[in-house]
Amino acid sequence: MKATYIFGAGDVRVLDAPDPKIIQPTDAIVRVTRACVCGSDLHPYHSLPSTPSGRTMGHELIGVVDEIGADVATVKPGDFVISPFAFSDGTCQFCRESLQTSCEHGAFWNAPAQGTGGAQAEAARIPLADGTLVKVPGTVDESMYAGLLTLSDVYGTGWHAAVRAGVTTGDTVAVIGDGAVGLMAVLSAKQLGAERIILMGRHQARTALGREFGATDVVAERGEEGIARVLELTGGHGARRVLEAVGHLPAYEQAVGIVRPGGIISRVGVPQYEQGELGWSFFGKNTTLTGGPAPVRAYIEQLLPAVLDGTAQPGKVFDREINLTEIPEGYAAMNGRTALKVMVRP
Predict the structure, then answer these.
(1) Per-residue burial over 154-191, b = 16 or more CB atoms within 10 Å of its CB, e = otherwise
(2) Relative to the CA of 154, which of 101, 229, 291, 331 has its CA 20 to 30 Å away?
(3) Quick one: which of 219, 180, 213, 223 has its CA closest to 198?
(4) Would the pTM count as exceeding 0.90?
């Protein structure tokens, strides 16, 4: 089969790779119908040292089950499924607490020790299939692919940001970042009843989509100017719920600057830093810090019905579709901000 590998910063290639095989009786093999490039994939694209053996890429997919292990009971060949970006058994103490990204027996994609490759490929081995995969009911046609694919990561991650922040009816929410996760955080905050949603982003096509999803205000300024603008919009107090969807230190510092006293910062952007403000500017406001890698498996069944009936249209974050062989161009487009989120057709 064809699969995506990265060999160093900016060096993405599509190569021939061994077809995935059943290793454990709890495995399934899924033929990938659609995958995509994630904003977090750009982190190694920017900074991965030279890796002569290459590293597989991708963690978001939907597809059709081709084969199952002897112990798999919840899906069968021919089922159309969504696979979240982490696999989990569904039975350990953390899975039972809806923290599947902390599963005692699970892991993330592209884990050679676990025998998993990447989702930017023609097929994938899914460990712990019963706990990981979600079957999509009914007939699935291509018009539904984009929305369903968001459930493998970005929609669930945006939802996680809003849920961990405790967004509820009447809230004022600030979302930092106009990438796909930030836009999904806007959509999620709106669905949870936020009255005012301030989107901090400067790319007009993206912020226009953010307004469609429910943003009431857009702040293009960054740093101290951005903080001052949000404080002005909120009567000097700041936002009660701040959803940080970027992962870089300036975004976190901005979150600390705009959070209301007694408010909550929820981080879901994968942090590219080890130290951040926790001194008086944080402590003095009685701020709560939460968030983390989204256990999207916990949210798929909850979010799926609105995607299926068109009530929610998260698939609008995909603004480019490419073949698998074109994936180097897809990475370059997202890196150059000429594409918001790229969908991949194997």
Answers:
(1) bbbbbbbbbbbbebeeebbbbbbbbbbbbbbbbbbbbb
(2) 229
(3) 219
(4) yes
Q: Are 132 and 110 in contact (CB under 8 A)?
A: no
The 3-state DSSP class for residue 212 equals: helix
According to the model, what pLDDT value does residue 274 have? 86
pLDDT of residue 272: 87
Tokens representing 253 are 């510092």
**For residue 118, which of 247, 14, 256 has the smallest C-alpha distance?**
14
255 by DSSP, 3-state: which? Answer: helix
**Quick one: 102 and 192 in the same domain?**
no
Tens-digit pLDDT profile for residues 175-195: 999 999 999 999 999 999 999
Question: What span, in angstroms and rounded, lies between the C-alpha atoms of 33 and 326?
Answer: 16
Total number of domains constituting the chain:
2
- DSSP strands (E only) in 57-186: 61-68, 80-83, 86-87, 107-108, 123-126, 134-135, 172-176
Residue 103 phi/psi, 5° resolution? -50, 135
What per-residue confidence (pLDDT) applies to 7? 98
Are 172 and 136 members of one domain? Answer: no
Predicted local confidence at residue 100, as pLDDT: 97
Please report the beta strands in the chain, taking only residues with DSSP state E, as ranges in sequence order.
2-8, 11-16, 28-36, 55-56, 61-68, 80-83, 86-87, 107-108, 123-126, 134-135, 172-176, 196-200, 217-219, 239-244, 259-267, 288-291, 320-323, 342-345
Given a cut of 70, the residues of the chain with pLDDT beneath it are: none
Q: Domain with 228 in it: what CATH number?
A: 3.40.50.720
Angstrom distance (rounded) from CA 280 to CA 237: 17
What is the extent of the structural domain holding 24? 2-153+295-345
Strand 80-83 and strand 134-135: the pairing is: antiparallel
Number of Cβ within 10 Å of residue 327's Cβ equals: 25
